[in-house]
């Protein structure tokens, strides 16, 4: 009798377990998904923690909290050589990088396209706060840090050097990871640096440096960084590339008119002080812009010509082979982002 009761108990428990499992399976369609929607695809987008790349974390936030089926996940690096290696090895299929480096990669046979810009302006030449330098001629024989030899910061300074009648050898250029520049200036390891924000403002706020030139003083509508996409992604998933470019464009339009919100949002991704980013984004005169980001052949050609002239680029390749603007939307509206400023 006792054995029979045990058998009936086991049977009843089995039936209840099956019923419970069936209920879960049947109701699974109505269970809430992770985040705002289920992401069918995640595409990493490389960036540095600089305001030139601010639209990257903004897009990450947008696609993570919206009904987008693609998550464009911002992936932070500290220097451009590592980014270049990542896209060469296809560990990244989309990234922001300095424009001349993208041209160099294309020249070397890496199948990439420039599809959009990251920003306009946004870089400054910073020197020691107590220095007596008043122009570039005063920096003859000095050491200036740049983010890469293949950077527009380098190219534009070489152009200015030549305009001032100086030799390109009059300035000692050294490539440094941008986060290291303020401390290198403070220690006296370098005499100045030319890079994207926030490291210029950081040097100012910490009483280390002062701005000698804004990029816009030397080259109005200055281009530092571009959005580069590997041709494998363009060929295999053009709709995703279209969504990426549209998303970056709309993120820029939102950031342009929501600067305080954008600074707080980006600070969480960059792991930087929100007040520092807010200072940069709300300063007057304006330090960086996130609109009018469609690159023209003339702009890219100008960069390429400088690279050829100074010997860092070697081959003459048609700009149409590296520039692909077909994914840029005709009309760019600000992204619909729900983000409140935290006091």
From TrEMBL:
<dbReference type="Pfam" id="PF13379">
    <property type="entry name" value="NMT1_2"/>
</dbReference>
<keyword id="KW-1003">Cell membrane</keyword>
<keyword id="KW-0997">Cell inner membrane</keyword>
<keyword id="KW-0472">Membrane</keyword>
<keyword id="KW-0813">Transport</keyword>
<keyword id="KW-0732">Signal</keyword>
<dbReference type="InterPro" id="IPR044527">
    <property type="entry name" value="NrtA/CpmA_ABC-bd_dom"/>
</dbReference>
<protein>
    <submittedName>
        <fullName>NitT/TauT family transport system substrate-binding protein</fullName>
    </submittedName>
</protein>
<comment type="similarity">
    <text>Belongs to the bacterial solute-binding protein SsuA/TauA family.</text>
</comment>
């Amino acid at each position: 009798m006792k054995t029979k009761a045990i058998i009936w108990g086991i049977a009843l428990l089995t039936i209840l377990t099956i019923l419970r499992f069936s209920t879960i399976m049947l109701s699974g369609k109505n269970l809430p998904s992770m985040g705002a929607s289920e992401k069918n695809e995640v595409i990493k987008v490389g960036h540095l923690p600089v305001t030139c790349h601010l639209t990257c974390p903004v897009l990450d936030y947008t696609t993570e909290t919206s009904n987008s089926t693609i998550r464009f996940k911002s992936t932070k690096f500290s220097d451009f050589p590592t980014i270049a290696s990542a896209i060469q090895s296809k560990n990244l299929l989309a990234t922001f990088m300095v424009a001349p480096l993208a041209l160099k990669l294309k020249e070397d046979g890496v199948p990439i396209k420039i599809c959009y810009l990251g920003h306009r302006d946004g870089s400054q030449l910073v020197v020691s706060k107590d220095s007596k330098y008043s122009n570039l001629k005063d920096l003859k024989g000095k050491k200036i840090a740049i983010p890469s030899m293949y950077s527009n910061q380098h190219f534009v300074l070489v152009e200015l050097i030549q305009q001032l009648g100086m030799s390109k050898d009059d300035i000692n250029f050294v490539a440094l990871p941008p986060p290291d520049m303020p401390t290198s200036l403070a220690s006296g390891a370098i005499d100045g640096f030319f890079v994207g924000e926030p490291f210029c403002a950081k040097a100012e706020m910490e009483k280390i440096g002062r701005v000698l030139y804004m990029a816009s003083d030397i080259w109005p509508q200055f281009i530092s960084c571009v959005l580069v996409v590997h041709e494998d992604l363009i060929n295999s998933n053009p709709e995703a590339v279209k969504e990426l470019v549209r998303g970056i464009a709309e993120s820029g339009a939102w950031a342009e008119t929501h600067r305080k919100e954008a600074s707080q949002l980006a600070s969480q991704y960059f792991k930087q002080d929100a007040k520092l980013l807010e200072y940069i984004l709300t300063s007057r005169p304006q330090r960086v812009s996130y609109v009018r980001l469609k690159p023209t052949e003339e702009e890219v050609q100008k960069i390429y010509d400088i690279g050829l002239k100074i010997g860092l680029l070697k081959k003459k390749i048609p700009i149409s082979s590296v520039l692909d603007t077909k994914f840029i939307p005709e009309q760019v509206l600000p992204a619909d982002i729900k983000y409140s400023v935290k006091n």
